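Key idea: predict the complex, not the pieces.
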Amino acid sequence: MLYFSKLKITLIALFTLFMVMVSSSNFLDLDLDKQKKIKLGLDLQGGSYLLLELDNEPVIKQKLQSKLLEIKDYFKKNKIKILSLKLDDKLIKLKVSKDDVEKISEIFSDKESTINPYYFQYKAHQLDVKINGDVFNLELSKYGIILIKNASLDQAIEIVRKRVDEVGTNEPNILKRGNDRILLELPGLDNPDRIKSLLGKTADLAFRLESKSSNESFGTEKLKLIETGEELLLSKRVIISGDNLVDASPRMDSLNNQTVVSFTLDRVGSKRFAQATKRNIGTRLAIVLDGQIISAPVIRDVIAGGSGQISGGFTFQSATDLALLLRSGALPAPLNIIEERTVGPDLGQDSINAGILSLIIGFLLVIGFMTLKYRIFGIIANFTLIINLILLISILTLLEATLTLPGIAGIILTVGMAVDANVLIFERIKEETSKEKNNLIAFDNGYSKSKITILDANITTIIAAIILFIFGSGPVKGFSITLCVGILTTLFSVFFIARLLTSIYVKINKHKEIIIK
Amino acid sequence: MKKDYKFNQYYKSLNVFSIALILLSLIFLIFKGLNYGVDFKGGTLIEIRVETEKPDIEVLRSNFNKMNLGKISIKNFGSDNDFVVKFKRDELNDPEFIENLQKNLSQELTQDFSFRRVENVGPKVSSELLKAGVTAICLSLMAMLIYIWIRFEWQFSVGAIAALFHDVIITLGIFSALSLEINLSIVAAVLTIVGYSMNDTVVIYDRVRENLKKYSDIKIFDLTNLSINETLSRTIITSSTTLLALVSIFLFGGEILKGFSLAMILGVILGTYSSIFIANPLLVFFKVSQKTVLKEDN
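Result:
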């Protein structure tokens, strides 16, 4: 166990040197483009952590409604008679004549079916079909729902990114979590109120005409005007929607000194807008945002240029926000904030200071204790500990891991526990030297006999750390990473660095009596 | 210097003591329960720093009570100028909630203050976090059981797991008795305790197994005592250095890490104790002998 070839010594030295250089990049500013550094978690640098959940109910309802129409068209095209077809909450009920049941059942279960698509990735159909006599009960399958959720989540992430980017925060981190959640990390932001209010709006914009009678072919509904509370009967037909907007910005209207939002439409939108305004001069045009009417001016003239403005008693701030929302587009479904954690930068700095102070004190205490206890071998153990810390920092750097406050606690804990392996070895050597006069053999035995115990003992801690990594969230994850890496670097430093140093010391003092206290 | 302390003399009395502690902890856990923080209970936590002169906590309390937040709890946090306010809130969507709170408070309070930390956890997330925490702890116990089952004989795994349960239950019992807050970092601490306690037990068990193979004439009762003595230096030194590091976190690591380091300190003390006085008597109880360990080698 004590023999090291020259090649091995060189490799260990080179590796250690490399790691020292890597870890030093955290403290020096080398101005390199790809300089890797440990990132500070939000609890240390300050910032906001938001977990958002997409409320997919409306999206699923909408999907079912369009599925209903799809089925109707499909059956019409294939000349199969439908006795009745209706949506009952989340169940499509399809009644057909008894003779057709078998044929239809085949259509739904066909893997090539266009009306009930088969997903090869999931090995499942979009709809679960249950036949009850001559009634087909169609329900979205688990995978059908997952696909809908994934699609709307992807869309929502795109919109969230646009809105967050527009506010211009520093390096936001936007991540998908599961099927319907978005994790938003905003470093350095100590007041997330504006972001929250921007993300809280779906920003579903529609221009709709006031309806004279309630039995219009598109259907009508009553909506409220935000400012006055006045109720208007509107046609459900959407003339132009937010999708038709290419730009929006806040402006001062020079005529009446009001803040307005001016917008530009795309080609399709401009055409439709021009036609609608031409045909409906004298009618009120309602601008509906998220189910409420912002304003409903009377159409006085054809608006042909493809641009216009929305007024509605805006302040400059609210006009800016509305323009931003319109530019970034509508969310597919409302987003709910289900978790929020914000740490101010001064608390973060306090945490860093406290963490570093306790690391230094803990480190000095351990080093002092080991030196008093083991003298020369204590110094070897301490030197190993320093190398261990450097390795730990450099591996965290290479992984570009995020350092959190519990992560710092993990490093300090590593300092306390890392000496364990050395202690196990020294204690074993102590026993061996009392039996064996030859130092080299005694030390060699000490190392080999304690090896299994050290591995056993460290594997248990690593198991706990890995489970914590899988189930832990946020800062706690940072703790498990440092603990895991800490154990690995401990094993390396003890079995390579400490063993090398011990072997050098023993070889020099081959014939002297070596006593470990 | 050969150590020969008679640990085995205390097996019985200390086992009774441990069982009493476990029962007491269970009574606390069942009847008083744990004091869950916002992570697991849901709700809002605000850490407030009041600048300049030190405020009266009662003034702050009455100010918050005026705001119709339901039942609030307010406590000093570390220093005299820092406070933590907690209350229940299910709806987190109102973006102006915190701003309004700040405005309300600034009208009532003469001193300058700032919100240093705001945590809102919805009911859905908190129940998920709790579930994940419990799952993680159960899984880690199971993983340890399996690991030690592979490495040792079943008597050893039962002994090691009993020691683990002992440590985890009593640590949680103390947290319940003292009404200390259980949050995400406490779960991390409990998992680390599981790892540490196991580590300690494994070192002694390794020695017991080695000695079992070496000496056929020593009874398990004395053999465990011999093994404890042989590994005693290591046990003391490792727990000392670990405790030194932890005490340093407890004293200087700031208020946020207090609960975590306290749980770890308790766990390390209990873990060291249990690996001597719980794990070993169980081997005696199971009448482990040379035959037990030699069976597997043949």
